[in-house]
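To illustrate the input format used throughout this study, we show a single complete record. The first block contains the structure-token representation of the backbone; no residue identities are included at this stage. The design step must infer an amino acid for every position from geometry alone.
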């Protein structure tokens, strides 16, 4: 069984705890939005008023009462509705953050898969060519022993040295492969990461760029999920400005109190008492409180708008840089596949034939084989690098114009 890239991406996304955490955060914010829009709890008071301190007799004085009171506070202006709307907007950020996380995980896991593929293919190339170098060593040793090909002792040493270098390269590549698998294991689990990846790069990473990539303008990048999340944040900051305006309005409260009076000492009934009233504060001295908070909220709103502009510029620059790298890599890959590698193979075959015919230098034959092997390994690296850049380009140009496909229950246990 070999690891397909699509399977790796699906497993990484479904096992990502961040996505489940985001769902929990969104659910918590939606619950809080309901609480934010609710009136504060009323206050109930119980007490005794006007007790005589000489006897504490409740029937001695006419003013003595047992009281029960009720008070209700009404927050300033539309602050309740605005606070509820703010929390809902914050909850609305989470679907776009999850969408951004999903495509970011796709990019990251693709990079790691390609690193495993690059190391695996490079190891395979060296293993396949080791036999050729061993054959060269045998030819040099046979020629030196028989003295029929003009072989020298240094040819035998050179062949042994190159085999040692190949072993060193294999050791380094196995180390890189193990490191890449450990990194991939963070996303799909260590057991799955130990499996070999497929021998071929998925076709979607070899496709050309979209014809309209050059039209990656600002209006297109505004649909990126990270930008949509920032748009939600801007809406939150705008509500903060509205909330700061509400601080200039008074906060109201109403209260009612019932006072029970005991009978007079002579047995005469006394009327119970009832009090009612309203209260409000006076936001008069606003210079160092309301004005300052309003200015701060307005500054945060402008800062969020600036951050959005910087995000778009960053996405655009990185997308264009990725395209430039892909175009250059495509040119180099084409050159290697169509011209350079065939020529190197011809050169290596010619050098080996000349040496076998006692008409060439052993060192030249070895250098030609090494150059051919290095070119093959470099081509593998370029293909992997090309796939990485295409994965990054796809992340940077993700279109989240539709509603993100992440419900509150999709990632819940």
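Output of the design step:
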């Amino acid at each position: 069984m070999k690891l397909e890239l699509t399977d790796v991406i699906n497993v990484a996304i479904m096992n990502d705890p961040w996505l489940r955490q985001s769902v929990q955060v969104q659910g918590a914010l939606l619950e809080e939005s309901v609480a934010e829009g609710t009136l504060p709890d009323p206050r109930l008071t119980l007490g005794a008023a006007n007790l005589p301190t000489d006897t504490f007799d409740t029937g001695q004085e006419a003013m003595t009462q047992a009281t029960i009171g009720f008070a209700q506070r009404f927050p300033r202006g539309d602050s309740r509705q605005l606070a509820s709307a703010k929390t809902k907007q914050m909850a609305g950020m989470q679907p776009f953050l999850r969408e951004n996380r999903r495509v970011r995980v796709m990019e990251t896991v693709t990079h790691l898969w390609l690193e495993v593929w690059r190391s695996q293919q490079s190891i395979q190339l060296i293993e396949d060519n080791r036999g050729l170098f061993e054959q060269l060593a045998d030819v040099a040793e046979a020629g030196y022993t028989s003295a029929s090909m003009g072989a020298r002792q240094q040819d035998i040493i050179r062949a042994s040295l190159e085999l040692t270098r190949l072993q060193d390269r294999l050791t380094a590549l196995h180390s890189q492969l193990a490191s890449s698998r450990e990194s991939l294991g963070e996303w799909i689990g260590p057991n799955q990461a130990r499996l070999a990846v497929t021998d071929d790069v998925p076709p979607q990473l070899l496709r050309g760029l979209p014809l309209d990539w050059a039209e990656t303008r600002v209006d297109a990048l505004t649909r990126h999920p990270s930008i949509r999340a920032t748009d939600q944040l801007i809406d939150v900051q705008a509500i903060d400005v509205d909330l700061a305006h509400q601080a200039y309005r008074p906060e109201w409260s109403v209260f009612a109190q019932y006072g029970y009076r005991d009978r007079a000492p002579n047995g005469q009934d006394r009327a119970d008492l009832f009090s009612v009233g309203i209260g409000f504060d006076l936001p008069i001295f606003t210079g160092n409180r309301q004005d300052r908070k309003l200015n701060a909220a307005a500054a945060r709103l402008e800062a969020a708008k600036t951050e959005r502009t910087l995000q778009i510029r960053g996405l655009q620059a990185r997308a264009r840089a990725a395209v430039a790298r892909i175009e250059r890599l495509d040119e180099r890959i084409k050159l290697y596949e169509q011209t350079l590698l065939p020529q190197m193979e011809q050169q290596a075959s010619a050098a080996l034939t000349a040496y076998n015919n006692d008409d060439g230098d052993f060192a030249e034959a070895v250098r030609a084989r090494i150059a051919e092997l290095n070119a093959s390994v470099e081509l593998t690296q370029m293909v992997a690098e090309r796939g990485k850049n295409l994965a990054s380009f796809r992340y940077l140009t993700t279109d989240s114009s539709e509603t993100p496909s992440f419900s509150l229950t999709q990632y819940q246990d």
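Structural context for interpreting the output: Residues 403-413 have pLDDT under 50 and may be disordered. Strands lie at 43-49, 65-74, 252-260, 273-280.
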